[in-house]
Structure formats: structure tokens, C-alpha cells
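Hey, why these numbers?
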Amino acid sequence: MNATIWMALALVLILEGLGPLLSPRIWRRMILSMVQLPDTLLRRFGGGLVVAGAVIYYMVSIRSGG
């Protein structure tokens, strides 16, 4: 794998770990509330995150000439 992919994965892990590290009680409450959401809403939310990530990736790659 490309070093850029590993760096991106590392940043995702760092950002994902900040919630439980800094505020475990609030993070747990958020996770528990997400469990109660319907599947369709979670799918829409996940799809929105994928689209946002793809747009950001595209904008950065165009900006950096890659």
C-alpha cells in the first residue's frame, strides 16, 4: 500500500480514538443513542460520510496535482 494510504488510516484511527480517550461517558452515551436509530437513518448518515470523504479526497488530489 502507498504511504499516503497508511497516513490516512493513521489519521482516521487518531480521530476515532479521541472521543473515548477525552470523554468516555459522552462517547458511550452517543453510541447507545445510535443503537436505537433505524437502519435507514444510519445508512443515510454513513452514505453522507462516504460522499463527504470522497469529495474532500477529490478536492485535495486536484489541489495537489495528483
Summary: The chain has two domains: 1-35, 38-66.
